[in-house]
């Protein structure tokens, strides 16, 4: 079989043209990683977050072009994004309230509860945030599978997609219905795979561009926490907007979080971002439950061999250095992408797979900490609960 070289792949990607700019994927410098193994090719594409899901056809075109190369048995293209949140106006310094002059989020249902205190949800024992320093690292994939892993461990679990810049739960959970309200005030969460879920994406079209200002982010999230009938939950997993800007800081500050899980890829640059995420939670005294290393290594879907595209183990070392738990590593694997992008996350669609087990183990570690914290036996001395 002819050897498939990185140069040959780049040459092919030089023929895939982005219709918007008229330039090739290679010429645009989108190709940030290439791995090949016995005829199986994986590439990562660094994309402009502003274009989001609009780039899906281009991603598919890349896969097709590579698949057409002689000797190629399978091709996977994964998009990652340095997704800077639209810069919101800074939240009012020194106090938690949101400005009364700010427009309320028109696209969210229910009443505006207003007020600036801490957002707590009665009946929910622990609210945890899944966060990342930048977009495209697999935060949402991790949040979904972590929530399903908690449910698989026998816990009553909810999942709130607070990533209002790019809600992904409708796609990842395959939800097409709209949430209902019995009394016109409270929304019923949509139950899927044993989880109670809510996403702004259930209410507005995924392709509708939304421009959010800091205070609007806060009030949209507040409504999704307060105006949804979550009922009794052991854990509510919140998929945070990516990044560490003011909007994220305000959320971390206002929601009564029991802890945060940081998702990072092993690339050094992503780890720098992960550190920013960590510092953000520390600043607002939210315990960091640990770091998950996603796309840790490339696991060939056919021969099972691993290649460490980005260098591996960075997150574990970083976690040790920073004194936070390392929760586990998840490989870059075709099954994880296809299952989560088709609405059947791997923890439910392939519950006996090694990947599902890895997510369940991470969930077990998270729960262990939450239940230990509940008993007041938390070890980490550098964390203060307000
Ligand atoms: P984020 O929430 O950080 O923006 P997503 O969870 O939406 O990232 O993931 C971005 C893309 O990468 C999605 O297409 C997703 O299916 C894919 N992906 C995430 N984690 C993995 C993984 N471990 N292996 C393969 N693909 C992955």
Can you tell me about this structure?
- There is one protein chain.
- This protein folds into two domains: 6-80, 2-Layer Sandwich (GMP Synthetase, Chain A, domain 3); 124-375, Rossmann fold, CATH 3.40.50.300.
- The relative contact order is 0.15.
- Strands 4, 5, 6, 7, 8, 9, 10, 11 and 12 form a nine-stranded mixed β-sheet that branches. Strands 1-2-3 form a three-stranded mixed β-sheet, with helices on one face.
- With 386 residues, it is an alpha/beta fold.
- The protein has helices spanning 6-13, 56-67, 139-152, 169-173, 214-226, 246-254, 268-283, 314-322, 334-341, 346-349, 354-374; strands at 31-37, 40-47, 74-81, 124-131, 157-161, 190-192, 195-199, 233-239, 259-264, 288-299, 306-307, 326-332.
- The model is unreliable at 83-115 and 376-386 (pLDDT under 50).
- It is built from eleven helices and twelve strands.
- Bound molecules: adenosine-5'-diphosphate (ADP).
The ordered H/E elements are HEEHEEHEHEEHEHEHEEHEHHH
Q: For the terminal residues, how far apart are their CA atoms?
A: 62 Å
Assess the beta-strand content as a share of residues.
Answer: 15-25%
Give me the CATH superfamily of the largest domain: P-loop containing nucleotide triphosphate hydrolases
Task: State Rg.
Answer: 21 Å
* Helix proportion range: 25-40%
Number of helices: 11
Mean pLDDT: 80
Largest sheet: 9 strands, mixed
| CATH top level class name of the largest domain | Alpha Beta
Count of beta strands: 12
How many distinct domains? 2
Characterize the overall form. globular
Low-confidence parts lasting 5 or more residues at pLDDT below 50? 83-115, 376-386
The CATH architecture name of the largest domain reads 3-Layer(aba) Sandwich
